[in-house]
Amino acid sequence: MPNLPIRSRRRTLGLLAASLPLSWLGACSPAGGPDAPVSLETARAELEAGRALVFDIREPHEHATGVAAGMRLLPMSQLEARLAEIPRDPAQPVLLICNTQNRSARVAALLHERGYANVRHVGSGMSGWAARGWPMVAPASSGPLGSGS
Hints:
Elements (H helix, E strand, L loop, with lengths): L5 H13 L21 H10 L3 E4 L3 H4 L8 E2 L5 H4 L11 E4 L4 H12 L5 E3 L3 H7 L18
Parallel strand pairs: 1-2, 1-3, 3-4
């Protein structure tokens, strides 16, 4: 599936960044703070136990390479239009994952600025998930990639 042109990806990130104060672009908080990443292992355990909602914010052409079962697909380019899908309830942990953690860290910071105290991002991202050989499924499919289901 063709990738979005770099210009389109830059435009999407630029539009998101243009709506934010510059303070969110700074370095992450010390380890354990709300801006510190959640480990991939912790994110997987929380997802599988149903203790956290995990949103995959990669774009549809990236989802086509495989997604983790149970993750909710919310492309970053659709974030503004679908923001209501992310709960604000502090008792409901929300984790964001992208391909490497760059976009998910930025989006988590954006959401913190907007009052979402329950949101964290996942370190390593889906590239780390794939590198570990963890199961992935096709989007809107219940079977593993390559299984024909």
